[in-house]
Amino acid sequence: MLQQFRQNKSQEAEMKHLLSTVRKCQNVCRQMDEKCGIVPPQPWYWPPQNPHNDHDSDEEEEEEPDPERTILPELDAYLRYRHSYCVWCGVKYSNREDMITHCPGDTQDAHNQDHTGDFADDTDFAD
Asked: Could you write out the DSSP letters of every residue in 45-106?
């Protein structure tokens, strides 16, 4: 029973971290899109207008897709390709070539590994 409790707490912490990362990405996306005068391709690319609204209104809202399977990877790709921004580095690069040269990769795992000067140079940044 204790093991199940720990597992549940661990999963809750992972989900909380994931949702926090998604909200940070949405905020960055909004800032960069607004700076460039871009309307987001999907409404959920930006943070909700009223995050304290628990869907009490009668308006039909487009639901956000599952954060783990859809939102984060799609936001990450959009920010990388549209704005040369790496979610995991927290850096806006001057262009894609700069990102390819200095960013270790397009996943969190690539950033968590020991980077002793070897950056992934086989990342495909094609549109």
From this structure: GS--S-TT--S-SSS--PPPPPIIIIIHHHHHHHHHHHH-EETTTTEE-SSHHHHHHH---S
